[in-house]
Amino acid sequence: MNGGLENLKHILVLMMENRSFDHMLGFAQSPSWPIDGLVGTEIRINKDSTGEDVPVSNDANYAGGLTPDPGHSGFDTLTQLYGDARTGVVQDPKMSGFVRSYEGKTGNPADAHRIMKCFDPVKLPVLTRLAQQFCVCDRWFSSLPGPTFPNRAFVHAATSMGRVDMGIDWRKLSPTIYERLAENHLDSVIYYHDSTMASTFDGLAGNPDFFRSLDNDFLAACDDNDLPTYSFLEPRFANSPGGNGEPAYSASDQHPDHNVREGEALIQRVFKAVWKNPKVRNSTLLVITYDEHGGTYDHVVPPTTVNPDGKVWTNDGVSLAGY
What we know:
Helix content is 26%, strand content 11%.
């Protein structure tokens, strides 16, 4: 950014899906870029059910290596943190249960070893170069140890109302950042491809002022230097085979086991849209982040946190607050 914070007029947040820091950037660590990443000999070694140690490696594939989808529910995440979900939440998790958790999905110890595969930085040139040339946070944690919708609820409203589930009804999530900004006469837009959970929020649903197309409206806004104060960018969440006159599309969210290269292309496209217009470039902060780890390996112990509003969700009378 040219000129510092006094020129900041626009904040863009592009939130991808279900990849951990180590999984994507850990092996980019080097003496010249000393992030808290991976060297391949991490002390927190994971074991499969046969007792075999499974070390971390830098040979992850763009697609095909994480089917079935790694677990990332509250139960799965507790297993990944502690080796056994029955341990409950205690201090200093060992980050030792990723293989055992994934073995619960694959049903095969050897197949579960794939969860320890992380990317060689040469495979992710866009994400890696942006992280190295600008700024990277190696202590940016998801809001809660659980799946997509609750974590995305936090980025919209700083709460999930105590929820850790993947239910699709989020009507009562309000007020959001968009409504708060509107109260102060600041504009905000959610640019999306195929879907956004924000369309279910009572405070936003049915109001076209808050929703635009990423493919068309976002790119045009960058060209015209007409971005809102705050923009939230959604990737494409689903593959579409096309047909009946409709083009085929590939998911760009990087959710396992979608092709990670599609997400690289989206990140590059968003960055170039901002960078090519000097007026936008010099007045915009672009934040690229992931909603949660998605069950993929990371060696860093997450910190403790607090319930932001004291809300506890119950589903059929069963409290989920313990997650």
